[in-house]
Amino acid sequence: MFKAKVLIKRRPSILDPQGVAVEKGAQHLGISNIKNTRIGKLIEFDVDLTDRTAAEKEVNDYCSKLLSNPIMEDYEFTLSEWIPSGEEVK
Amino acid sequence: MFKAKVLIKRRPSILDPQGVAVEKGAQHLGISNIKNTRIGKLIEFDVDLTDRTAAEKEVNDYCSKLLSNPIMEDYEFTLSEWIPSGEEVK
Q: Which among A66, B63, B64, B71 is least buried, having the fewest CB atoms inside 10 angstroms?
């Protein structure tokens, strides 16, 4: 079993209107030193496989087919092995 | 100047219907070893302050007043000092 943590970001060249909007809201609240807000996704899940290579393939499939938009976004992930009854191995 | 990276997650006790929906989609695509998908947010921005304590306060304000829903979500962040012309200091 692995625990996967995926971070998805818009490519730097692509505008982030949601970030712009939140930042404007901040200025109205007097939070005025924040710049260049970019909003992405954090996705965490378990992968029920014992082989790391197979688990990486599963995560890549999940990311590229469902979680991210490959035209506009990049993703990166970490996998940590995990024994359900105990602690993280790595 | 600091670069901030904020991760926002739903509290573990709160259901994540979006995660459940995406995972069902995965099963239809034959990606069947994924469990317990939880979808959160990754937010990155610059803080235009030189004092770390002041920058931390600014990030806490931004997170608690705008970025996260304190009833349902927890946030954590890292701040790395950054000199606009050069590389990350820490």
A: B71
Contact present, B88 and B81 (Cβ < 8 Å):
yes
What ipTM describes this predicted complex?
0.87
Question: Cβ–Cβ of B29/A61 closer than 8 Å?
Answer: yes
The pair of structure tokens assigned to B82 is: 């950054």
**Looking at the complex, does the CB of residue B26 fall below 8 Å from at least one CB of chain A?**
yes
In A, which residues are within 8 Å of B34 by CB distance? 45-48, 58, 62
All domains in chain B, ordered by first residue = 2-81 (3.30.1280.10)
What pairing do the DSSP bridges indicate for beta strands A34-47 and B2-10? Answer: unpaired
Name the pTM for this structure: 0.89
